[in-house]
Amino acid sequence: xxxxxxxxxxxxxxxxxxxxxxxxxxxxxxxxxxxxxxxxxxxxxxxxxxxxxxxxxxxxxxxxxxxxxxxxxxxxxxxxxxxxxxxxxxxxxxxxxxxxxxxxxxxxxxxxxxxxxxxxxxxxxxxxxxxxxxxxxxxxxxxxxxxxxxxxxxxxxxxxxxxxxxxxxxxxxxxxxxxxxx
Length: 182
Hints:
The protein is about 5% helix and about 45% strand. It contains one helix and 13 strands; from the N terminus they run E-H-E-E-E-E-E-E-E-E-E-E-E-E. Strand 4 and strand 5 form a beta hairpin. The longest helix is centred in the first third of the chain and has 10 residues, at about 10-20. The chain is globular and about 40 Å long. The protein starts with a strand and ends in an 8-residue tail after the last strand.
């Protein structure tokens, strides 16, 4: 059973001003009881590229890898020059997804959820902006059609990440229909 955390009144007010039809709560994801399959990032199919602005110097079209359906762990490694890695996730109407980094040095990385235009703010996007040492981001689909969200794994400002292995865990769920607003 999922637990829900209320959003602040300021966030709800801003969402109302922007016309967002998102739920007033953020799902608390439960770890699945069955084993989660692991895949290598190099074996994933390419997804449609995104137009993403990463800092001041890394702008442009970025290639992404498509995450398969279901819960999955994606194993990957930072390059010699740490560049962000992009993973596309299809989310059905009312669906939720959490991207969380696992590993020995997961606090060296950051995870952001962005839309196809590379914007990390808006309906359904919840970023882990407080450096808690557990990089993760969540998304819930408040729309009437399925959508795609991109999880971006970055180096987190640490130049010691070159060659560092990481695992991105994708957990999917559904919002409680009683909680979801129309």
